[in-house]
Fold this protein.
Amino acid sequence: MAGSFQRTLPTLRALLLILTLLLGAAIGLALTWTTTMGGYGPGVVQAGPWRVWPKAGTEEADPYARAALARTGELPLELADGLAFIATVDDAGRALDGRCELRLTGAIPQARYWTLTVTDADGGLIEHSSERNGFTSAEVVWNRDGTLDVALGPRARAGNWLPTGGAARIGLTLRLYDTPFGLAARDSDAPVMPRLITERCP
Amino acid sequence: MSTTPSPTTPPHGTSSRFIPRPPTLLKRLADSWLGLRWLIMPVLVALVLGALVHLVTVLILPFYAEQDGYARLAAVGEPNEMVLLDDPSAKSGVLPRMDPAFVTAACVYDLSEGPLKVRAPVTDDYASISFFTRHGVPFYAINDRTAGRDMVELDLMNAKQKAGLPENDEVTAADQLVVESPTDQGIVLVRALVREPGAREQVRTLVETAMCAPSL
């Protein structure tokens, strides 16, 4: 009994070594996969539900931002060009649902121009009957007090309305062009962003 | 076991002072061959190895990404030539996550043969030129307001070519915008805002005049 155990021990050791190496590789790859998904690494600045990675648009972009960008194949907005704020949840932390009636409300940070784009959860444009996938600052109707209200939902509404195509998960990108909010590195430096509210869900 | 019971100890040994406590289940498992002690080393090694694999893959990912920005743009245009990109739609888009409110032209460049001239028109609204390295790291951008002219013209060169520029040349000093590229290969994007859909054709016609070509 003890003798056969002694004989199988080297095989067990080798098996254990292989399993250890495999586990290590799996842990490493899983970490890389998750850290380069759904964002551009640790350089995030948060303003309510909006997230922005100012450093990703500079030469000082950290390795996570570089890896995430290379993986998706996108070219970031250069910081001197503009800032792109991304939201996939509303103010209450609930995922933005394109089947619901959503509202973006509040002041837009100072910028020469801005654009608001409705995308799916991965940042791709949504296919629907309307041509419209966003607004520019020159197109919207402003409130008297200088704030903005944009209704988002599957069915047309009066005022500023953006179609969501009834997609289950949507994302919003607010890009500010020629804006003084450049080198914000902390959440406290972030400008006040418009609120995102889920009003009604079917 | 070896301790001699003191005379005050009751005969049935109810005092716990002298009877060793039975080992806990965890300790028994850890002590035995079938226990957990043998797991400590492999798990530690796997964690350290995982951290290493993670760091290395993140660092080399930009160099092995096959569908990065450069590859996508190189597939639609020749090097050192400006191409007007199709407007992004739900089904297609040369580059992901591009602002659909913009008309974009792109030029993948290679400076090994000599410096390039980049020209971009200024439109009624916002327009910009941005530069990226071979691996998509942005290194310079200029917009219509910072340029402040009808047509933005830049000279793009690598460090060696820039060092070879004649010094104190009046033309060089005053009128030339020189952009130094950290890598020989890279990408230029010329982007112009379309303020409302009706203006798209007009902006496209303007952006079509953008160019990038070897400077003589």
User: Anything to note?
Assistant: The helical segments of chain A are 2-35, 63-72. Chain A has a mean pLDDT of 91. The two ends of chain A are 68 Å apart (CA to CA).
